[in-house]
Design brief:
It is built from ten helices and 16 strands. By secondary structure, it is an alpha/beta fold. α2 crosses α3. The longest helix has 14 residues.
Length: 322
Amino acid sequence: MKSWFVASGPNSTTLELRDIAVPEPKAGELLVKMRAAGLNRGEFIAGHGLSGAGAKPGGIEGSGEVVKAGEGVTAFKPGDRVMGRAAGAYAEYAVFRADYALPAPAALGWEEAAGAGIAYLTAYDMLWPGGELKSNEWLLVAGASAGVGVASMQLGKLIGARVIGTSGSAGKLKKLAALGLDLGLQNRNGGFEKAVMEATGGKGVDLVVNNVGGTVFDECIRSLAYRGRLATVGYVDGVVTAQLDILALHSKRLKVFGVSNKLRSAPEVAEGVRGFTRDVLPAFAGGHLKPVIDKVFAFPELPQAKAHMESNAHLGKIILRA
C-alpha cells in the first residue's frame, strides 16, 4: 500500500511516499480502510514535530471503514464507520486503537469525520475536564482561526459560553463571526487585553485557550477574571518561554495548565475519548455541530497540503483525501 512518511529534522520537515505492507491489527486494534486524514501542525514543526526522530508513517487522525478487528475488540466490526486518532493515517490503510476510535456519525461526510478528531478532542480536554467552562462564562481563544482554535470556539458556544477570539486576519474573524464568535479582535501577537476587559465589564474572562504561545502568555494572564483558568496548547509564534506574574496568579487564584498528549498514558487518552463520546459526539450525530474544513487535498498532494498549513492561510482543518 502507499503511505506517506514524515521526517522532522533540526531545520525542516520532509515527506516521502513509500510502498509498505498493509499492517495487521493486534489485540485491541482495528485495521481501517482510510477515506480521509486530518493534518496537524505539530507533525510538521521542524526539530520537535510529532513524528519524532527519523522518518515514520505520517498522520495521527482520520476516518474510514473497519476492515478487520483485532483480538478482544467487541465495540466495532468490519464495515463500521470510524474516526479519531490513528497511527499512520496518511496511507491507504491505518491502525486505530479500538479504545481511541469513535463511531463516525452518518451526519458527517468522510472529510468532516477526519477533521472531527484531534482538534476537537484537544478542545474538549481544555473546556470540559481542564477548564470546567460553564454556560454564560467568558472564553477567550487566542489564535482562533487554527484547527484547535476553531474547535474551541465551537465547543465553547455548544456549552453556552460567550466567546472572544483573536486573529491577525480580519477576513478570518468575519468567517468566525458567522460561526458564532461573539467578539473578534484583530491581534496577531498581543494587544487584546484592553478590549477583553471592556467587553467583560472589567471582570476578565473565565477561561483562556492560548493557541499562540509565549508572546501572549502574560497578556492572557492579565485578561483573566478572579478564579480564571488558562490553558496553553500551542506555540505558533515559536516562543516557548514566558514571564509569569506570580502576584496575579496568587491574588486572583488562577489555574494555569498545559494540554498535550505526549506524556499521557493510554488509559488517560481513552478516558478522554469516553468523555468526548458522551458530551460532544451527540452534537455531531445530531447535526448541531460540524467540523470546519478549510481545504481538501488529494492523496498525492500532501506536500501542497503541508505548504498550505505552513502559510497560515487556512481557517479550520486541512484534509487529505485517501
